[in-house]
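To assess whether the prediction recovers the assembly geometry, we first specified each molecular entity separately, as shown.
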Amino acid sequence: MGEIKEAKATLIGGMKFEGWAGSGHTVMMDAEEVHGGEGAGFRPMELLLVGLAGCTAMDVISILRKKRQDVTGLEVRVRGERADEHPKVYKNIEIEYIVTGHDVEEKAVARAIELSTDKYCGATATLRHTAEIKISYKIVDGD
Amino acid sequence: MGEIKEAKATLIGGMKFEGWAGSGHTVMMDAEEVHGGEGAGFRPMELLLVGLAGCTAMDVISILRKKRQDVTGLEVRVRGERADEHPKVYKNIEIEYIVTGHDVEEKAVARAIELSTDKYCGATATLRHTAEIKISYKIVDGD
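The predicted structure of the complete assembly is given in tokenized form:
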């Protein structure tokens, strides 16, 4: 049997739900004002993109460290365009990696992103079933 | 063009990343100790399940309220089993809905869940590409 992950959403009031996961952490979710919420938390569909950003970011930082690259910062920006029709899945996703460090090799960055995208990241592997995923990266010299 | 959602993961240190989304909210993500983290945040793949739970929970509560059901509580529990091999996508997902209220009609609950699952919930529509999704529900009388 594969690894089990657990999560939960519990109604707090209005459209506000507390999200919880098996690691013990919690996060607030809420609908937008136009959908009867108060905007007091993440929209649930945003969390798919946050998870995607974190998933591939962890892969990339691990691989770059294994490749002994002197990385001082990493930001992964994700932009998802939803379909017009329900269930409004993401149909286009752009992922931009901004790697900061000293003499970071472009080849290492490109390879790390490729390994995450094609092999390791479970979120990319899931979301690419509905979305065309476009990737770009930038390397910045600095602390 | 469809609705745009934005998200970001920013390295804080170690394997810790701050997740952010366009609604303005933030959440911490971290790897497990065995993967070089400190467990000080959500595992990114957990956020897919939290988003799924929240997405379908918001659909169901909206629909039950439209159907004038007297719902006092809603909890959506999700359990995902990942594949053994990379990229370890979810291959089985169980969703359990626990609806609390007064004289809540089973037919209304079943229909609300069906509408979310088959029509409205973008997270279900995404995750079902890799996972077989099993659904169950319980109706509890009470406040």
